[in-house]
Prior knowledge:
The structure is a single chain. It contains six helices and five strands. The protein has helices spanning 14-30, 49-53, 55-81, 96-106, 121-127, 130-137, and strands at residues 5-9, 33-40, 86-92, 111-116, 142-146. Helix 4 packs parallel to helix 6 (130-137). The protein has one domain (5-146): 3-Layer(aba) Sandwich (Rossmann fold). A five-stranded parallel sheet has the order 3-2-1-4-5, with helices on both faces. It is of the alpha/beta class. The two termini are 26 Å apart.
Amino acid sequence: xxxxxILVAVDDSPISYAAVEHALSLAQLTHGxxxxxxxxxxxxxxxxxxxxIAPAVTDxxxxxxxxxxxxxxxxxxxxxxxxxxxxxxLYHGVPAAEGIINTADEINADLIIMGSHGHTGVKKFVxxxxxxxxxxxxxxxxxxxxx
Length: 147
């Protein structure tokens, strides 16, 4: 199978950057198009009115968005240097796994590449697993990069 539309989900973690390196190598081999995605997840307190209007919260999300855009632009340069057709996308307002799945559908991705922190037990239960949710919901192959 040839992967022509590769979606790469990135965050600030080192494992995310390892996923980027895998995507770069695979895109070079397949001459595929790459979409770099960062999801600013929905806030768990979104239903609490006083929380939504707090200036500190607004500032936090504005800073998170600016940081994500900067990170995507920085990663994009690696693909540009190697002549790979790359675009960036920022998705917000939904849980991370939902943003990844929605974007994969929007761009007609035929592969999703992402890192997994490998949390198990209570940590996985409390934090959830974005990778596990994407694996369960995705209609396209998912390449999970682990430590």
